[in-house]
Structures are given as C-alpha cells and as structure tokens.
Amino acid sequence: MAVYEGLLTDQDHLRMITRVAWLYHVRGLKQSHVADALGLSQSRVSRLLETAVSLGIVRTTVRVPAGLQLELEQALVERYRLRDAHVFDVPGRPGDVGLLGDLGRVLADYLSGKPLTGDVIGFTSWSRTLRETVRSMDEERDPGSGFVVEMLGDVGPPDAQHEAAETTRQLARMVGAQPRFLRVPGVVTTSRMKRTLLENDAHAREALSLLDRVDEALVGIGTCAIDPPLRAGDNFFTQEQFAKALSRGAVGQVNLRFIDATGAAVHCGLDDLVIGVTLPQLRACPRTIAVAGGSAKVPAIRGALLGGWVNTLVTDTTTAEELLLPAG
Fold it and tell me: Does domain 70-323 sit in CATH 1.20.1600.10?
C-alpha cells in the first residue's frame, strides 16, 4: 500500500527519507526494489533520494587518486621548495566562479589522506574556502589534549563571526581537539586599542600564546582588496589602508600580513593593528597549508610561496600552471 506524504509528520517523513536512503545506498537495492519493500512508487523513491542529498543525509564524495597531476605538483614543489602540493583539475570552472567551494572540498579530500595530527592546529576561521573545507570533512575523533586555535580575530559582520566560531568548534571536534577562540576584532583602529583589548581579555591572550606552538596551520591568502561579505573598516582594513599597502609594493596578504611579489613582508604601519598570527610565527610552523586559486590571487599565492610563509599548497590546475609561468 502506498504511503502518502500528506499523512506523515515531519519526523515520520525524515524517517522515511532515511530508510529509503539506507536501503538504496547501504543495502544496494535498486529503486524498484526499495519501492516494493516500502509500498512506494518508484518516482516517489527517486524524489526521496534527492531530498536525502539536499538535507545532507546522503553525502556523495569523490575521492581523487593521488598523483593525477603529478607533474604539476612536482614542478610546484621544486620551484617553490614546498613540503607538498595537491593540484586538482576542477571541472566546469573556466573562470573563478564557484572556485572557493570547489577548492574547499578538494582540501577536505586531501586531508582525508594526510590528516591534521598536530598538538596545536592553527585555523583561519574567517576564510570562506576553509569553512567549506570543514563542512566537507567527515572524520571525527575522540577528544584529546590538543587545540584548534583561531589565527585571526573577528572580521566582518556578526553573522560571519558566528559562523567562523562554529566552524572552529566543528573542526576541533573532528580532529579530537579543544577549540580556542579569538573573540576580539581582527583589525583595530589604533595600536593603543589593541593593547587595551588584550590587557583585559585573558582568553584572547591564551589563544595568542598558543600561536607560538602551532604544529600545523590552515592559512588564508588574500589580495589587497575587499571581498564580500567583508566590509571596509568593519573589524577590517579600510580602502585607504589597502591603498597604502599597495603603494609600498604589496601584492597580497597572508592572514592580513602584507607581502610583496618576492614574499618579503611589507612594512606599512598596519601590522600593529592586526590581532592574530604573525609572519614569524607562520615561518616557525612545520606544516602551513593554504588552499587558494584564481587568476586574481596568483601574485599573492606566488609571494606567499616565495616567502616561505606557506609550505603546502592545494590549488586548481589553471592556477598551478600560472604559478609556474615567469612572474610578469
């Protein structure tokens, strides 16, 4: 006898979706056999399977075999003296549209084979790509004594800050660590304000002290521009401050620390306004992982690699090829 959706409660409906997904994906029954077993039409089974995917009950993952882009990866390692490189040919992305989400999922796949195991893991929670990485990860370990610590204070509007904190908590749970948050502005207006904030916030001081002990770091690489949902001056640099960094030769930034085309730090008086990891702390970290791509970011990525601020890169084929061209 057929089961009609209108007669089901929300909980019953969710249970039915899960049963259909289980029989099809785990038991390996054909849709027609699932329909017979549950008294449903085959079209109804098909719709329930689609719903299971949209609700996240079923997650389809594509495991990318290592070495598919071996020549590109090896060329990047040799050119920039990297610890590792992972290059993926992102399908259907001739430009930069949608690249952030795709690369986040590629990094999650990479980490499934080369997981985070450090005692102190630094995390750039404001990075949209890294948040997508955490959403795509499926590993969860028993609680341990390690830490996941945010490497930059809050930037952007409150909803983005909340999402960043929740992503940090989720990553900590997945790697079996304790989260440590940096709930202070990422960029302040004066160095005096920075001193006052830290003098009165023991939790922030604890998080910053952990940055001296980071074993592995998930790093953010950015341009000298403001991308939504970030807004100028909203716990972030202003347009005028970015213009000042550009006038001093900056081509991008690593966790809001400006660098030039050779990877050298750009000293323009803005470092004292940032509450977060410093370039020397990143240099001391044994494994610094960045996921980044797109033509607009190539100068910043190249600088981060040349400067040694990043030693592991996850990127797409087009970006990798551009990084191997002579710098213009």
Answer: no
Reported pTM: 0.79
Class of domain 5-54: mainly alpha
Residue 56 φ/ψ region, left for φ over 0, alpha for ψ in the -120 to 50 degree band, beta for the rest: left
pLDDT digits (tens, 9 = 90+) for 32-42: 999 999 999 99
Residue ranges of the chain assigned to CATH 1.10.10.10 = 5-54
Backbone angles phi, psi at 118, to 5 degrees: -70, 160
Q: What is the pLDDT of residues 162-183, one digit of tens each?
A: 899 999 999 999 999 999 999 9
